[in-house]
């Protein structure tokens, strides 16, 4: 066991507990820093995800932060899709999975950057004092 993984696993748990997806940290760390094969990294991420998700759900339920309608609307389409693509993923080469995951993370980063820039511009526009119109 490589104990250098522990801090990254903890960070992954922090992100999972916040609902942000710890796999976005854990999978790249395992593949890029530790040289794990993509299928193995994804497997470990799924193994780590299940108990993290259950624990987080229990806490969110106790705090009445779950919306039953949103939960059903998300789970009903995502569960069969996840199962179907799991069967596909085991048949796809690790290189293809790595490339797909890398493209996904890149797209996610670009979209996040654009949304942050837009939000900052909007906040500046709303906070900028306006001059009277009759000048």
Supply the key terms.
mainly alpha, 135 residues, single chain
How would you characterize the overall build of this protein?
Helix 1 (6-17) runs antiparallel to helix 2 and helix 2 runs antiparallel to helix 3. The protein has 135 residues and is mainly α. It is extended. The longest helix is centred in the last third of the chain and has 34 residues, at 94-127. The chain has one domain. 9% of the residues are buried. The chain has five helices and no strands. It has helices spanning 6-17, 23-33, 38-62, 68-89, 94-127.
Molecular shape:
extended
Task: Give the number of domains.
Answer: 1
What's the story with the biggest beta sheet? none
Alpha-beta classification:
mainly alpha
Task: Give the SSE order as H and E letters.
Answer: HHHHH
Q: C-alpha Rg, in Å? A: 20 Å
The first-to-last residue Cα distance is: 72 Å
The helix fraction, in percent, is over 70%
Low-confidence stretches: none
Total count of helical runs of at least 4 residues: 5
Mean pLDDT: 84
Beta fraction: under 5%
